[in-house]
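Translate sequence into structure tokens.
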Amino acid sequence: MPPPDGPLPPTEVRRPSDDERAGRRVLRNVNVVDVRAGVVRDRQDVLIADGRIQRVGKRLEATESVDLAGRYVMPSLIDLHVHPGVMVGLRMDANGQSPERVEHDLQVWLRYGVTTVQSMGLDRPFVFDSAFSGARLLSVGNGFGVEDGVPPVSMQPPLGPLRITDRAEIRHSLQRLVERGASGVKIWYDDWYRQMPKMATDVARTIIEISRELGLRSQAHVYYVDDAQSLLQAGLDVLAHMPRDRIVDQTFIKAMRASNAVVIPTITVPESNVAYEARPDWLSDPLLERFLPPGAREYLASKELAEAIRAKPEFPELWPDLERAKRNTALLYEAGARVAFGTDSGVSNRIIGFAEHRELEHLVNLGVTPADALRMATLINAEVLGLSDDVGSIEAGRRADLVVLRNNPLESISHTRTIESVWQDGVQVAGAL
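Result follows.
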């Protein structure tokens, strides 16, 4: 049974005019989710002008007024680890990445309340030159891998992941990323369960060293705890996944805290690697296939997919992987390490939009409070991206990127799904999910 790849349902995202974005309006009678304080501010008005929040308070005035009748308004979500334009429906096709496919995926993220995403590698140069409708896109560009290794995809020209080892070539490539306005650099540092070659340690350290010199944030795909610790010692800024070959020990936890690095758990990664083998209950979730092609649910629940997962050489490790990733996330959170938010959605059956809400629920099930889970997906992610003054909270001066909810997400993180509308730069761009 082949993965379905079309037709895709329409995203129904509006593209506001410049005049709309420049307008002055007030959202009245809203319960503001203050992610910084972890509380709800009852019955507030939010004044917006030129796409930014001007003030939050009572009885504010503007020429345009929208009464939200006591709905909850939270800052929109930010995902630090995505891959737009790489899947068509559920069919992997990195080589076919195009502006049209990237824009489609950005619009789907927006429908789920995600208005800023960072693409973590596999991007062609057009991502830096295009004005997309949908979630705001930041990109690390192609990323760095190793010949015949991770990531096991082929993109012909222009190339996807760079597989180079020469120091001068690495420096030139990183300088090009800076010139293009990349949000960082991605390193794939993994041997995929010892089935592929792994990047040489000195190459990874060279990329990290030159990235720091050039002001680029270094971010690494890792699997082994010892590899993660080695890269932290080299100055890595972000672990793009939770290491999970074993349970982290105090040595690793101390290294995380001492380095001030950030880890993105991406629990959805080890889950999607194996969960379809057991036909999980959440396959019946109506949000799962909201923007997938016909037959998506049947494919994900199919005997053929389950058998393909069981046939993988690494299958004996996949269920333990998931449990170790969860345990390590809980341990690092409890220890006060910096934990951010991302999903690696857009590849390998990780469903755009759905994965973000699934990840929030994973975090809360592991003991993260709903308030802290939302902070990870808003304030902390904005801080990691260097955008703390721009996005991530409902405060004066920030972009008016907002999600209107029927229910309070601080009472139950599942309430982030109760989306009535999504606002970007102060304009409603999407309706109910």
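Note: The domain at 77-384 is CATH 3.20.20.140 (TIM Barrel).
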